[in-house]
Amino acid sequence: MEELLKYQGNLLKNFQSSWYRYLFKDLLVQERLLGIKGLRGVGKTTLLLQHLKEILDQGEKGLYVTAEHPYFYNQTLFELASLWYSYGGKVLLVDEIHKYPDWSRELKLIYDGFPELRIIFTSSSALDLYRGEADLSRRLETQILHGLSFREYLSLYHQISLEPIDFQDIIENTLRISDGLIKKIGVPVLPLFKEYLQAGYFPFTKELKAERIPQRLIQIINTVLESDLSAIQGYSASNVIKIKQLLGVIAESVPFEPNISKIAEKMHLGRQTVNIYIKHLEDAKILNLLYEQVKGISQLQKPGKIYFENSNFLFSLQMNPSSGTVRETFFMNQLRNSGRLISLSKKGDFLVDEKYTFEIGGRNKDKSQIKNVENSFLALDDLEYGIGSKIPLWLFGFLY
């Protein structure tokens, strides 16, 4: 225990972070068992340590551990929780729980055996927290930490602090909203938006030189495939090679309209295997899959289109991604991250909440493709101010 407390003390001594992600104030900290999922690099560890400092400042006993710590070479998570509980510990924070082999069974035992102990843990997006060895569905609450919104990027990178804006307000009051934000931002917004699209989705890129960012993003993708998915899905080295090949095929032409049979034949795989790989890449937050419907989607239903999860991945894997693909990737990412339902539209590019049709394009795009479509809008790039159904694309970066 002394070893872990010393490790925690060293972490906190060197930890300085006065900037908080959107999820911090909404953390369900009173839940007895809370799981926080998210893509690598979005700030889950920082979030845990910020909450730990808050706990300690309030006089509570909190302990942070990472599942990769050598302590677990000969001790179990349950044994640690039992010992911490005997010390009067109230909160146990476990980072990267997917690295611990019996996480679900032991979390259940801890939950049932130590009713006054709260457990908050982080995991890879690829981990299905409800399908562990033990049934946690009645005990567990989960929250997702997404990458930075454009609003958060402005705050972290440029010290421009603004509040989130509701989707309904954006589409109903676009001129007032865009005019008000531009005045508050005080500098040209479009160059900042271009920076965000290329390298502003992850907090850590703030500390990197521009030329190092693509390499670091590719490293994140490789780590997700080689470490997270291998551990969670039991991938062998040959599985990882195949899934990298599949990602390479997709990267050549996103948004990718998949022909599963052709992909399977080209890669010498079964159709079902290809579908499973694609679904695992979505679970891991590498891809975003777009379907014709948002409800009742089968695990192996073929998506209508495949996008990368965020535009930063797109720039890291393609030298010059098309502006249309970048725009659509951003729109889909920010709408999904803010909790909106988004699917393929019969007319236009996207259907939001099964009601609103959106066509994405540059500032000169007209409504000819969505003419006479009720509740239809244009989300336009290179446009500062919106009016009527013409909405600046960057505004959708203020949803969370």
From TrEMBL:
AAA+ ATPase domain location: 30-150
Name the UniProt record assigns to this protein: ATPase AAA
Taxonomic source organism: Belliella aquatica
